[in-house]
Amino acid sequence: MIRRMRKIRRNGQQYSLFFIRPKENSNAHKYAERLASMDGVAEVMVTEGECGFVVKAKNPNIGEKSPILARNSYKRLTSYYQYRSR
User: Fold this and answer.
1) 8 A C-beta contact, residue 74 and residue 16
2) Rounded Cα distance, 69 and 81, in Å
3) What is the pTM of this model?
4) Could you give phi then psi for residue 43, rounded to 5 degrees?
5) Which end of the chain is more exposed for a tag (fewer CB within 10 A), N or C?
6) HSE-up of 76 (CA within 13 Å, CB side)?
């Protein structure tokens, strides 16, 4: 059996990841579209459980100035590197 080594690429672009708790009885698709339309947002993922949305943003301050996000509705982490197989 021959195993192929996958090439791994490292991207050093910095992103902020926002883990957002959804509002009760909100339309997930409309809310995701509103999040995705914010300046600096690169990607929005709809998930299940306590964290209903994961937002990948180039702008680390989107949560502070956003009328869409309540202060206690999200947690923010910073991603310094991303590793992907080619």
Assistant:
1) no
2) 26
3) 0.72
4) -160, 145
5) N
6) 15
DSSP one-letter string for 30-57: HHHHHHHTSTTEEEEEE--SS--EEEEE
Rounded Cα distance, 63 and 68, in Å: 8
Q: What angle is formed at CA 56 by the lines to CA 55 and CA 59, rounded to 5 degrees?
A: 110
CA-CA distance, 86 to 34, in Å (whole number)? 31
Top-confidence residue, 63 or 78: 78
User: Which residues, other chains included, contact 83 with Cβ-Cβ below 8 Å and sequence gap of 6+?
Assistant: 8, 9, 10, 11
- In this predicted model, what pLDDT tens digit does every residue of 28-54 receive, in sequence order? 899 899 889 888 889 999 988 778 889
